[in-house]
From TrEMBL:
Belongs to the peptidase M18 family. It comes from Glycomyces sambucus. Its EC number is 3.4.11.-. This is M18 family aminopeptidase. Keywords: Aminopeptidase, Hydrolase, Metal-binding, Metalloprotease, Protease, Zinc.
Length: 418
C-alpha cells in the first residue's frame, strides 16, 4: 500500500511531546515561529509597522501573523491549546491509608476510566515572586490513579461511576503526606527556590509516546490530538504562507476552550479583537471594513464514526478517520457553518487538493461546540467550523488517520490564500 508523505505527522508527534500543557504549546509554537524569522511582541509596548512575521502570547494562548504592506482582509485559522486532564489543587499534599497522594481537580470533559492505571507525569508553569513564569515538565512516571481490583469490585465490567473527589486522586508515594512536599519537589525539578513560587498551574500529563498504528500504519495515536493537531497545523501553514495576496494570515490558538473560554485570554476575551484592531491602525472605519471582508476557520477535532457504536452517529453523515478534514454543520449554530461558510471551506479544500467530509450530529444526541461561534460573535466575522475526525476524544490516548494532520495544514494554507 502506497504511503502518503507523513513528515507532517512525524513533526506533529514531536510537537505533542514538547507540549504537554498550553504554556508549553505556546513556547514550542514560538520556538518554531522564531526559527522561521518571526518575532515575539510585547502587548504593553508599541508594535513595529515593518513587514514580517510576529506573535504574542497571553496566558497559554498565542496569536501569530504575517504582515506584508497593505492588506484588505484577515484570514484567521483558530484552534485551542488546552486538553481535558487533571489540574493540581493549590494545596496538593494529601493521602490515605499509608499512601501519599496529590489532590487534583478535573479539568474539562474527562472520560474518567481512560486515565486509570496509567503512568502520568506532571507539567505546567510556576509563577515566581518577581512575576517570572517558569515552565516545568517532570517527564517521567510520577503519578498514577489506581483502579480498584476486579476481585474487590465484581461489577467492574457492568459500568461503575467514579466519584471525582474520592476515586480520582493519584498516588505518588508511600507514607504520611507532608504539607509543601510536592511543590518543593516540583520547584526543585524546575531549578527554583520553593519560597519564590507564589502560584502554579500544574497538570497531570499522559506519558505514552505518539505512535503509528495498524498493519499499514494508517492510524496515529497520541494524547492531545484535541487540539494540538490544529495548533500545529496552523503554525506549519503560517510559516509556509508566502503568497496570500491581499489577505493577512493569522493563527489564533486559545487556552481554556475545554472549560468555556471565559478568561482574559480565552476565545470569549477581547484578546484577538485587540490584536486585529492594532494591526488595522487607529481608523475604526478601516477596521470595520476589513472585518467585513475577513473570514475565520475554527479548527477542532470531531467524532469519527465509531465501528462499535454506529448508531450514535447521523445515518447519512458518517465521517471516518483517514477521510480528510470535516466541515461541521449544526442548524442550531453549535458549529458556525452555513452556506457562505461551506463555500469558503470548499474553496480552501479545492485549493489544497485534499479530501474532505461533512460532520453533523445525530438529532437525538446534542453535540459539543467550539471557539467558532464564540469568535464569530465576538468579532462579527464570517466563521466556518472544521476539524479532523478522531476516535476516543478527550481520552488519555486519542486516534486519528495518519494522513489527516497533513491535510489539515494544507486546508489552513488554502484558507490563507482565499
Amino acid at each position: 500500500m502506497a504511503r502518503f508523505d507523513r513528515s507532517h505527522t512525524d513533526d506533529l508527534a514531536a510537537f505533542i511531546k514538547a507540549a504537554p500543557t498550553p504554556y508549553h504549546a505556546c513556547a514550542e509554537a514560538g520556538k518554531r515561529l522564531e526559527a522561521a524569522g518571526f518575532t515575539r511582541l510585547d502587548e504593553t509596548k508599541e508594535w513595529p509597522a515593518a513587514d514580517g512575521g510576529y506573535y504574542v502570547v497571553r496566558d497559554g494562548s498565542i496569536i501569530a501573523w504575517r504582515q506584508r504592506g497593505e492588506f484588505e482582509a484577515f484570514r484567521i485559522f483558530g484552534a485551542h491549546t488546552d486538553t481535558p486532564t487533571f489540574k493540581v489543587k493549590p494545596k496538593p499534599d494529601t493521602g490515605s491509608a499509608g499512601w501519599k497522594q496529590i489532590a487534583v481537580e478535573v479539568y474539562g470533559g474527562v472520560p474518567h476510566q481512560t486515565w486509570l492505571d496509567r503512568d502520568l507525569s506532571v507539567a505546567g508553569r510556576l509563577v515566581l515572586r518577581d512575576g517570572t513564569e517558569v515552565l516545568v515538565h517532570v517527564d517521567r512516571p510520577l503519578l498514577r490513579i489506581p483502579r480498584l481490583a476486579i476481585h474487590l469490585d465484581r461489577a467492574a465490567n457492568e459500568g461503575r461511576a467514579l466519584d471525582a473527589q474520592g476515586h480520582l486522586t493519584p498516588v505518588w508515594g508511600l507514607g504520611r503526606p507532608r504539607e509543601g512536599e510536592f511543590l518543593e519537589f516540583i520547584a526543585g525539578e524546575a531549578g527554583v527556590d520553593p519560597d519564590d513560587v507564589l502560584g502554579h498551574d500544574l497538570f497531570a500529563a499522559a506519558l505514552d509516546a505518539p505512535a503509528y498504528l495498524g498493519k499499514d500504519e494508517e492510524l496515529f495515536a497520541a494524547w492531545r490530538l484535541d487540539n494540538l493537531t490544529s495548533t500545529h497545523a496552523g503554525v506549519a501553514a503560517l510559516i509556509a504562507a508566502e503568497d496570500t495576496g491581499a489577505n493577512l494570515p493569522v493563527l489564533a490558538s486559545f487556552n481554556y476552550e475545554e472549560t468555556g473560554s471565559m478568561t482574559h485570554s480565552g476565545a470569549q476575551s477581547p484578546f484577538l479583537e485587540t490584536v486585529l484592531r492594532r494591526l488595522s491602525g487607529d481608523d475604526f472605519g478601516r477596521y470595520a471594513a476589513t472585518i467585513a471582508r475577513s473570514a475565520m476557520m475554527s479548527s477542532d477535532t470531531g467524532n469519527s464514526i465509531h465501528p462499535n457504536y454506529p448508531e450514535k452517529h447521523d445515518p447519512t453523515h458518517r465521517p471516518i478517520a483517514g477521510g480528510g478534514p470535516m466541515i461541521k454543520v449544526s442548524a442550531n449554530q453549535r458549529y458556525a457553518s452555513g452556506a457562505e461558510e461551506e463555500a469558503l471551506f470548499r474553496r480552501s479544500a479545492e485549493h489544497a487538493g485534499i479530501p474532505w467530509q461533512y460532520y453533523v450530529n445525530r438529532n437525538s444526541i446534542p453535540g459539543g461546540t467550539t471557539i467558532g461561534p464564540i469568535s464569530g460573535t465576538q468579532l462579527g466575522i464570517l466563521t466556518v467550523d472544521v476539524g479532523l475526525p478522531i476516535l476516543s476524544m478527550h481520552s488519555a490516548r486519542e486516534l486519528c488517520g495518519a494522513d489527516d494532520p497533513g491535510h489539515l495544514a494544507d486546508l489552513a494554507l488554502g484558507l490563507f490564500a482565499h
